[in-house]
Write a structure and sequence with these properties.
6-stranded mixed β-sheet; single chain; globular; 136 residues
Length: 136
């Protein structure tokens, strides 16, 4: 069985070449009880289960023309793995944004991710969401 760090590295590698949701949908390393919490809470994203998280990242990816993710650091904490990644995205309107994210992945001891806590660049996430807010 791969280590928890190897699982996270493989997930980032897979997301670099495929649709953002595909690695999560197909991965045997996401528990059916998976949940995701996003911080700061001011971005307004609720806690999500696996289905909700897949829908969330699919919706986000639909706003982008391209994205490149660079993993800056991965820290092995045993059943918790922490990553710092920088995403450079080009939105469909041509706007380029650089966003950092810190993620804490919690594993169940059997190689399955049960919880994902992400700390996002709230300013750029808010700008991106504002640009594509449905007209009132």
């Amino acid at each position: 069985m791969p280590s928890n760090v190897e699982i996270i590295r493989a997930l980032y590698d897979e997301m670099a070449v495929n649709d953002a949701a595909e690695p999560i949908e197909k991965s045997p390393h996401f528990s059916d009880k998976f949940t995701c919490t996003s911080y700061p809470t001011t971005v307004g994203w609720p806690e999500m289960d696996k289905k909700g998280y897949i829908e969330h990242i699919t919706r986000g990816a639909s706003l982008m023309a391209s994205r490149k993710v660079v993993v800056n650091e991965i820290i092995d904490g045993g059943d918790k793995v922490i990553s710092h990644a920088t995403a450079t995205v080009t939105l469909k309107d041509g706007t380029e944004m650089v966003m950092d994210r810190i993620a804490i992945y919690s594993f169940d001891g059997e190689g399955k991710i049960v919880h994902f806590k992400q700390f996002v660049d709230s300013l750029n996430v808010s700008k991106m969401m504002e640009k594509f807010k449905p007209a009132a």
